[in-house]
């Protein structure tokens, strides 16, 4: 915890969403490449996945991926599921990226509303549309596309960008800074702290429980890191963690026959945590029942809520 600054900055969680191939990863690389002090690793979680942290002298933008929010045609026509809605809560802004070069030349408000409208109806925070790949677009098409999008929803801004060349990305940051609250950095400016490493390790374990058990388990499991010890001499991190479940009936599902499932969870988690920490890890997992933990304020506090 050595480099947490107490200076206030503009900081916030910003969801980066959009259809596949829109250029989200490319944008991320460009933003991080230019501005980065750190990149947090990418643990996949069922809630939000931190994609990267963009640091400036007086701001910190935490870009997150909210699963379920990726506008595929199928999803747009359906109700967004609970997870998607949940994962949007607490977002300070949403970036919705489209491949502008792939939009049909005669894209009308009606057509784009049909495709994206239901999606925006669910978002109540400031939303910025990023019209990506303008390097491929005849510049005369840009204004009409902005015009069409402006009729779909009261967006905070509609910004033409090229994730590849970086064109428009400064405007994006400037725009975000007008909506992000003044607060503290979520992450230290230059390095991951023990605190965030612990948090990410817990998220990785939770992810493995989710991936390897299914059923109702993911919603009733929580992971607490009991201890996290770095042994620099032996180049190893020893982690003790507890997986909390709500009901006794869930315990055998997570533990498995002869402990096989828990072992599988532990092995998969260890592999990812080793990658995260760039260190050998010895991981010890326990499973405990904590009835109604989702309603237990004290416990939620321990989890960092
Ligand atoms: N010309 C051009 N190509 C781009 C731009 N941004 C992304 N691309 C290309 O578009 C393709 C998709 O980009 P990605 O960044 O992988 O898109 P994504 O949204 O992360 O895709 P998923 O991972 O499928 O969600 C890649 O071939 C990129 O090189 C851009 O601004 N200009």
TrEMBL record:
Which positions are tagged coiled coil? none
**Which CDD domains does the annotation name?**
Era, KH-II_Era
Q: Which SUPFAM superfamilies match?
A: P-loop containing nucleoside triphosphate hydrolases, Prokaryotic type KH domain (KH-domain type II)
Instruction: Report the residue ranges that make up the KH type-2 domain in this protein.
Output: 213-291
Question: Residue limits of the Era-type G domain?
Answer: 10-189
Give the binding site residues for GTP. Answer: 18-25, 65-69, 132-135
Ranges for region G1: 18-25
Q: Which UniProt keywords apply?
A: Cell membrane, Cytoplasm, GTP-binding, Membrane, Nucleotide-binding, Ribosome biogenesis, RNA-binding, rRNA-binding
Region of interest (G4), ranges: 132-135
Give the matching Pfam families.
KH_2, MMR_HSR1
Q: Where in the cell is it found?
A: Cytoplasm; Cell membrane
Which stretches of sequence are listed as region G2?
A: 44-48
Q: Where is this region: G3?
A: 65-68
Note the topology in the membrane.
Peripheral membrane protein
Q: Where is this region: G5?
A: 161-163
What HAMAP family does the entry give?
Answer: GTPase_Era
The free-text function statement in the UniProt record for this protein reads: An essential GTPase that binds both GDP and GTP, with rapid nucleotide exchange. Plays a role in 16S rRNA processing and 30S ribosomal subunit biogenesis and possibly also in cell cycle regulation and energy metabolism.
The UniProt subunit note reads as follows: Monomer.
**Family annotation (NCBIfam families):** era, PRK00089.1, small_GTP
Q: Would you identify the family this protein belongs to, as annotated? A: Belongs to the TRAFAC class TrmE-Era-EngA-EngB-Septin-like GTPase superfamily. Era GTPase family.
Name of the molecule in the record? GTPase Era
Please give the organism. Answer: Desulfofustis limnaeus
